[in-house]
Amino acid sequence: MRRMPNVRVCIKDGPGKVSLVDMALPDPGPGQALIRTTLTSICGSDIHLIDEFPDIPAGVPMGHEAIGVVEAVGEGVERIRVGDRVVASCLTSCGSCEPCTSGEPQVCSTHGAPMNLLFGAQAEAFLLNGADFSCTTIPSGMADRDALFASDILSTGFGAIERADFREGQTVAIFAQGPVGLCATIAAKTYGASAIFAVESVPERVAMARRLGADQVLDPETAVEQIMALTGGRGVDVAVEALGRQQTLTNCFRVVRFGGTVSSVGVYGASQELAIPCDGSFYHRRFVTTLCPSGRARLDHLLGLIEQGRVDATPLLTHAMPLSQVVRAYEMFRTREDGVLKIALS
Ligand SMILES: [Zn+2]
Ligand SMILES: [Zn+2]
Fold this sequence. Notes:
It is a single chain. This protein is an alpha/beta fold and 346 residues long. It has helices at 44-52, 98-101, 131-134, 144-147, 153-162, 179-190, 203-212, 223-230, 246-255, 296-307, 326-335, and strands spanning 7-12, 18-23, 33-40, 66-73, 85-88, 125-128, 135-137, 171-175, 195-199, 216-218, 236-241, 256-264, 286-289, 317-321, 342-345. Strand 9, helix 7 and strand 10 (216-218) form a beta-alpha-beta unit.
């Protein structure tokens, strides 16, 4: 007997287009959970997926940031139960392969072929693979909106700083203050950066960067010169690329000190190659890239920081709309209408 009637699901409906359709969800299979969505959002990578990736065909359900309540679990699921309120990681994992058991579930080799991105969260309900490992329960006192960004952008923003081997008291430059860049700003602040130089020109994002902890917000046109001047010609310890453009990556190398780290979390879309300057700004640097660190332990770590009041990413939720208006929400998000950063869909 089917547990759920047809649900409304946002799908890719051809290049650059999404639609809301009715879809029947099967009962959860082994390891899966069926989750009734209570809050979801649109991510920058959704726009890349519908605009630039022909491999993602029409009809694919969209969305990978979600909070919901477990409606049913499949065979073998033991750690979550029907009725639990959970946040899902945007990258799912099996919990038993080599990457999963060595603390890198985001590159799970079982779920990773071809892609372990969660699909279908912009819907009334969705199926989550590897449910025991790919979600966690939310503390009862925590609101959905507080926990939502642990699924993706908050984890990615924190990952940008953590994988750069950042230490308290270091200096950080973050190129672009979209949702992920702003989460990197939150992370740099949380972990005790001595100076945070954010690079952004959109007025709403400049204001948000300041609000979330940036010490200075610099114009992209002059940021390299300004950062070098502000650091006495030394450069910063960590430079984060959070836009996904050649120029911002080049600028990261231009401002990072000898021995410092360029940390890239931008999604470069359809680009297949990037150039790295190999002049004086190249030697004795480190370059790291990060996928969203995911899985149950990661989610618990971030929810812990939120619960302690050390992290609050809710200011990023600038807009709220019903799921029924998801097509309109994509358009707003794509055009950054009305200063939109993130839209709460429920
Ligand atoms: Zn995403
Ligand atoms: Zn795995």
